[in-house]
Automatic annotation (TrEMBL):
Protein name: Deoxynucleoside kinase
Family according to the record: Belongs to the DCK/DGK family.
Domain of life: Bacteria
Matches recorded under SUPFAM superfamilies: P-loop containing nucleoside triphosphate hydrolases
Organism: Paenibacillus herberti
GO cellular component, one term: cytoplasm
Length: 208
């Protein structure tokens, strides 16, 4: 792995991406880039009516993540500084392929590739995979009002979409290392030993 690793933490809604990314950033003394979620003005509307508001929602996320990468990630990597993020911009395709249809999906795909194809890609991804019951419990525990309308069917489909996306990323970006974390069994918040094991695996990858 190169001298300035770009680490991304990924997983479906409620997996604990931001928590783990924040913990690793503190442990490894790396700058952290956190995605903008609650600031998206279309979230409430989207979970109430996905068909009407999906394009606006996805475009807001795409433009904001692109701006974050342009302002916060690229300059640091250019200067040889490592960085950690609580998302991979590829997640925009994971969500949009499920929520958009027809011409809107085609337009979105085109805009996505125009904006992101030449952006730096993470060379280490921590993929937190968890079952539906675990995700629902964590979503309920954090109590975000706009997530109250998330359906179990949508979340279950998202789990499957993420599994497929990680397989696709492994094929599309062979230089990227993907570490899968079993979110059903690994509690990196409450169990220091579990977190220590993750840190050890990350350090092993960074030293290669």
């Amino acid at each position: 792995m190169n001298h300035a690793p770009y680490i991304a933490v990924e997983g479906p809604i409620g997996a604990g991406k931001t928590t783990l990314a924040s913990m690793l950033a503190d442990e490894l003394q790396l700058p952290l880039v956190k995605e903008i979620v609650e600031e998206n003005p279309f979230l409430d509307k989207f979970y109430q009516d996905m068909d009407d508001w999906s394009f606006q929602l996805e475009m807001f996320f795409l433009c904001n993540r692109y701006k974050q990468l342009e302002d916060a990630v690229i300059p640091k990597l250019t200067q040889g500084q490592s960085i950690i993020s609580d998302y991979h911009i590829y997640k925009n395709l994971i969500f949009s392929e499920r929520t958009l249809k027809g011409i809107k999906r085609d337009k979105y795909r085109h805009i996505y590739h125009v904006l992101t194809d030449d952006l730096p890609k993470p060379n280490l991804i921590l993929y937190i995979r968890a079952d539906l019951e675990v995700l629902l419990e964590r979503i309920a525990k954090r109590g975000r009002s706009f997530e109250e309308d998330i359906s179990a069917d949508y979340l279950q489909q998202l789990i499957q979409d993420y599994d497929a996306a990680m397989t696709s990323l492994a094929e599309r970006e062979p230089s990227t290392t993907i570490i899968t974390i079993n979110g059903n069994e690994v509690d990196f918040v409450a169990n220091p030993e579990h977190f220590g094991q993750i840190v050890h695996r990350v350090k092993e990858c960074l030293s290669q």
